[in-house]
């Protein structure tokens, strides 16, 4: 049987990390190293850097899951946050495991745009929609990521269907609707796009491929 102090150490959560996509922010952690640690319950707190008091996250208090949604708690996207997690098992509590500092504006991952393709006989019209944040305007629509960053759309034609890497940049800018002209009828064209942030030199992943036969 593990001694109490050994149990405290062996169930302590490991690798407490923020993951964030388009400001949808979750805290993830791994169980402690003891085999019994898989049965532990977890307790999550958070605070803004510089505050002395930790806040309990009620929905993640005494949970068996190893993920906690902190989107709402990290909505001031310029502020740096910390979170911490402790585990409990058989009436024994571990010490707290601290996350690294997390600043949403700097660290969230921007997702790819949504791409819709409409074709005529010699051209393709590409409609682009920026990813949306979880935060809402007063009227209820979700605020697009372009409201938070200076973002450009990059649109590529995938020339060779066998070779995904062979992409040609055909447009970079802020227009949501673009037309690609002088294409060959009877040829299948595939379009992918991504968001690009010049200021931090960051790109999103590519969108899913949209193909059309002229």
Rounded to an integer in angstroms, the radius of gyration calculated over CA atoms is: 23 Å
Portion in strands: over 45%
Helical percent range?
Answer: under 10%
Write down how many β-strands occur, each being a DSSP E stretch of 2 or more residues. Answer: 18
> How many separate domains make up the residues?
2
Mean pLDDT: 93
Under the CATH scheme, the architecture of the largest domain is Sandwich
In the predicted model, the low-confidence regions spanning at least 5 consecutive residues are none
> Largest sheet, described in full?
5 strands, antiparallel
CATH topology name of the largest domain, in short, is Immunoglobulin-like
Structural class: mainly beta
Indicate the CATH class of the largest domain: Mainly Beta
What spatial form do the alpha-carbon principal axes imply?
elongated
Gap between N and C termini, in Å? 71 Å
Function: Receptor for IL22. Binds to IL22, prevents interaction with the functional IL-22R complex and blocks the activity of IL22 (in vitro). May play an important role as an IL22 antagonist in the regulation of inflammatory responses.
Domain Fibronectin type-III: 8-96
Subcellular location: Secreted
Protein name: Interleukin-22 receptor subunit alpha-2
